[in-house]
Amino acid sequence: MQIAVLGGGNGSFAAAADLTLAGHDVRLWRRDRAAADDHRAAGGSITLVDGKGRRAAKLALVTSDLAEALADAQLTICPTPAFAQGEIAAALARCLRPGQVVFLPPGTFGSYIFARACHEAGVRDVCFAETGTLPWLARKQGPYDIRISGRGVRLPTGVFPRVKAAYALDVIGRAFPGAILPCGDALSGALMNAGPVIHPPLITMNAGPIEHFERWDIHKEGTQPAIRRVTDQLDAERIAVREAFGYGPPHFPLADHYARRQWMYETDSHDTLTDSGDWRERIVLTRHRYMLEDVKIGLSFLVSMGELAGAPTPLARSFLSVGSAIVGEDFAKTGRTRETLGLGAMSKAELQVLLDKGFA
After folding, report:
1. Would the pLDDT of 240 be above 90?
2. Do the beta carbons of residue 294 and residue 320 sit within 8 Å?
3. Which domains does the chain have, with CATH numbers?
4. What number is the average pLDDT over the span 120-145?
5. Residue 360: pLDDT above 80?
6. Exposed, middle or buried by CB within 10 Å (0-12, 13-18, 19+), for 258?
7. Mean pLDDT, to the nearest integer, of 163-186?
8. Residue 184: pLDDT band by 50, 70, 90 thresholds?
9. Sheet of strand 127-131: strand arrangement
């Protein structure tokens, strides 16, 4: 299958390399033209390091031309941070054609942002989907090297509009055979996102050591019993919001991941992650993705949707306030809320119609 992968970060490199080695024709789009030119000049390959050793994945194309990357692509995968979605969606809308599928792993309701951009650009019959986590636990080891410590094996995925779910899930399933689990509409998929549950407690409750040490592993030394108890309560708020919208189980509670029960990743993925040492890193709290994506965008979205559904989210609100204080910005106003999405006047029932049928 012809696949376009967008971005030059950890997730994008993991997607491009893994899917190439699985036999797909992968075109990698990098927004940074100089980086794309350098990568192409270096041979256009990515070296993947995992349990099978080191393998070279020769990509079909590395380009900074979005239209070139998307040409004939049946599936477009966009693992970029949520704060980059608006700009990418506007550019993508000028290049997409009917029948193409865009997959956001994860999305934080980015599927709606992409669909709205296409609607405003007059593009019809394109499907968007999102799941609850990045399908790879991965970190770059060099300019063109990526190490994958774990892979997603159960990826709950929601589709916008829901009426196109069967088609979209079939296309995505060809890239992730046996791993895609339908979970309904795009909001259901967005409320599976584990990042806003895992990362806000880890970075705020570990803020002292994060700023003191040159590098700190929030998943190893930073994951202590007190923080885990808080994480479980925050996850309970996420699940309560899902239930208030009428979404049933499985809700993929994060506790299953830590207990080495079947979750989105392989059962031993947390141990593999902490043993790798790849997450012992420098985190600048005011600029890191965990703050600007998972706290600012992820938690503001959870709180806002909880308000609409009538589900209290006191812990999510607390971490949103702490993150706002650390950065010096009111995330409740600048994050991803119903108001900033343009959905502030929409009732729960009206939102459900939009999720099901898409734009008129």
Report:
1. yes
2. no
3. 2-190 (3.40.50.720), 195-357 (1.10.1040.10)
4. 96
5. no
6. middle
7. 98
8. very high
9. 61-63, 25-29, 2-6, 75-77, 101-104, 127-131, 155-160, 180-185
pLDDT value of residue 141: 94
Determine contact, residues 140/196, Cβ cutoff 8 Å: no
pLDDT of residue 71: 94
DSSP bridge partners of 77? 5, 103
Per DSSP, 164 falls in state G
Torsion of CA 4, 291, 339, 86, to 10 degrees: -20
Contacts (Cβ under 8 Å, ≥6 apart) of 252: 132, 154, 156, 192, 194, 263, 264
Residue 344 sits at φ, ψ, to 5 deg, of: -60, -30
Provide DSSP, 242-310: HHHTT--S----HHHHHTT-SSSB-TTHHHHHHHH-TTEE---TTT-HIIIIIIIIIIHHHHHHHHHHT
- pLDDT tens-place string over residues 53-87: 999 999 999 999 999 999 999 999 999 999 999 99
Q: What is the percentage of the chain residues whose pLDDT exceeds 70?
A: 100
* DSSP H or E run through 101: strand 101-104
Query: What's the rounded Cα separation, in Å, for the pair 273 and 264?
Result: 14
